[in-house]
Amino acid sequence: MVLGALATAWAGPAALAAAGEDCAAIDDAGTRLACIDRLAGASPPPSGESAGTVESTIILLDRRPGGHLVFRLANGQVWEQRDARFMAVQAGEQVVIAPARLGGGHILATERSATARVRRLE
């Protein structure tokens, strides 16, 4: 998998962008994150190991004054978007939150392919 990601990167930005679009088109959030991880050159966790992955449903969205979204999940966890970019998301959506392979922190992915870097508040 790492060689595939390197080959894509060596092929140039257009090939990498196309591969990223292929990942974004995957419906299943967990599979989509694994695809993105492969592009980043990271290997997925061994079978059966979640590596801190959380799957839940958004029950409430708040927006902080700076524009950051706060996600309140059905499992009781609260996560905040780390950057204030627009994100098309709504209450009731399924999400997967997994450790980011690059840059630390966590990545939240929705069932509609929206992603954001997040940090846990509660």
Question: What topology emerges from the helices and strands here?
Answer:
Blueprint lengths: L1 H9 L2 H12 L4 H11 L14 E10 L5 E5 L4 E4 L12 E6 L6 E5 L4 E6 L2
Antiparallel strand pairs: 1-2, 1-4, 2-3, 3-6, 4-5, 5-6
Helix pairs in contact: 1-2, 2-3
Produce a short descriptive summary.
This protein is α+β, with helices and mostly antiparallel strands and 122 residues long. It is 26% helix and 30% strand. Strands 1-2-3-6-5-4 form a 6-stranded antiparallel beta barrel.
Notable features of this structure?
122 residues; alpha+beta; six-stranded antiparallel beta barrel; 6 strands; globular; disordered N terminus
Basic shape: globular
Strand order of the largest sheet: 1-2-3-6-5-4
Radius of gyration, in angstroms, nearest whole number: 15 Å
Quick check: average pLDDT? 77
Could you explain how this protein is built, in words?
The chain is an alpha+beta fold. It has one domain. It has three helices and six strands; from the N terminus they run H-H-H-E-E-E-E-E-E. The chain has a six-stranded antiparallel β-barrel with strand order 1-2-3-6-5-4. The longest helix is centred in the first third of the chain and has 12 residues, at 13-24. The protein is globular. The N and C termini lie far apart (35 Å). Mean pLDDT is 77; it is low at 1-12 and 42-50.
